[in-house]
């Protein structure tokens, strides 16, 4: 979808058009899922965070000042909901449990496209502070400055964590190659 069409959809959605808002959410759904799963590492919690984000965005759409920042605004709300869920639930499920769920067919009935297995394994290697930033940077295409805004971190810290995260991945793959 081109930028002009997105801008028009955002303006229409701000006019309380549910169809335009639905189309916007569908357009960004995979990005929302990737960001939520990077933080929560659990499909059910990710779905809850996305659902809460959609509701909050619909209710607060009038507060969006600049339509150019809709995706950033949407992602920031999602990140806040993800951290709220983690604070209240405090639970994780391991990669093995996720694979069991996949074998049981849970993913087949999910409305969200699950990321591929390699992506999940990659995320498991990293600590959260690197996992979230690498997902936002490589998975969702945010710049270091935008990630800094989303996570309330200086852009220099984001760049440092990107570099360290890449270094950890390199070390992991080198170790895997030796095995």
Please give a handful of descriptors for the protein shown.
elongated, mainly alpha, Arc Repressor Mutant, subunit A, 9 helices, 179 residues, Rna Polymerase Sigma Factor, Chain: A
Number of helices: 9
How many distinct domains? Answer: 2
Give the biggest beta sheet.
none
In the CATH scheme, the class of the largest domain would be: Mainly Alpha
By CATH's scheme, which homologous superfamily of the largest domain applies?
RNA polymerase sigma factor, region 2, helix turn helix motif
H/E series: HHHHHHHHH
* Mean pLDDT, all residues: 83
Q: Per the principal axes of the C-alpha atoms, what is the gross shape? A: elongated
CATH architecture grouping of the largest domain:
Orthogonal Bundle
Plain-language structure description:
With 179 residues, this protein is mainly α. The longest helix is centred in the last third of the chain and has 24 residues, at 155-178. The radius of gyration is 17 Å and the shape is elongated. It is built from nine helices and no strands. It starts with a helix and ends with a helix. It folds into two domains: 1-115, Rna Polymerase Sigma Factor, Chain: A (Orthogonal Bundle); 126-179, Orthogonal Bundle (Arc Repressor Mutant, subunit A), CATH 1.10.10.
């Amino acid at each position: 979808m081109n930028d002009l069409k997105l801008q028009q959809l955002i303006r229409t959605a701000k006019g309380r058009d549910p169809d335009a808002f639905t189309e916007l959410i569908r357009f960004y759904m995979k990005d929302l899922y990737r960001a939520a799963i990077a933080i929560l590492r659990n499909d059910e919690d990710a779905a809850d965070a996305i659902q809460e984000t959609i509701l909050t965005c619909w209710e607060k759409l009038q507060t969006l000042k600049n339509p150019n920042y809709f995706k950033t605004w949407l992602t920031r709300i999602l990140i806040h909901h993800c951290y709220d869920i983690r604070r209240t639930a405090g639970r994780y499920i391991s990669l093995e449990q996720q694979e069991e769920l996949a074998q049981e067919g849970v993913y087949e009935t999910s409305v969200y496209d699950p990321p591929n297995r390699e992506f999940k394994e990659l995320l498991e290697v990293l600590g959260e502070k690197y996992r979230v930033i690498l997902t936002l940077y490589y998975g969702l295409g945010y710049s270091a400055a935008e990630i800094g805004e989303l996570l309330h971190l200086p852009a220099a810290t984001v760049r440092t964590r990107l570099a360290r995260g890449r270094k950890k991945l390199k070390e992991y793959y080198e170790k895997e190659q030796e095995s």
